[in-house]
Amino acid sequence: MEKIFLKTSDGIKLALNHYKTNHNEVVIIVHGWFMTKDSNAFSNLAKDFSEYFDVITFDCRGHGKSSGFYTFTKKENIDLKTVIDYAKKQYEKINLIGFSLGGAIVLIHNALYNDTDKIIAVSAPSDFNKIENQMWKKEAWLPTLQKCEFRRWFSIRPSLLYLTLHSKIKPIDIIKHVKAPTLFIAGTKDPTVHLWHTEKLYNEAVCEKQFKIIDGIHAEDLYLQNPEEFIAICINWLKQPSHNFCNQISTDTSSLSHQ
Question: Domain range spanning residue 90?
Answer without folding.
Answer: 2-251
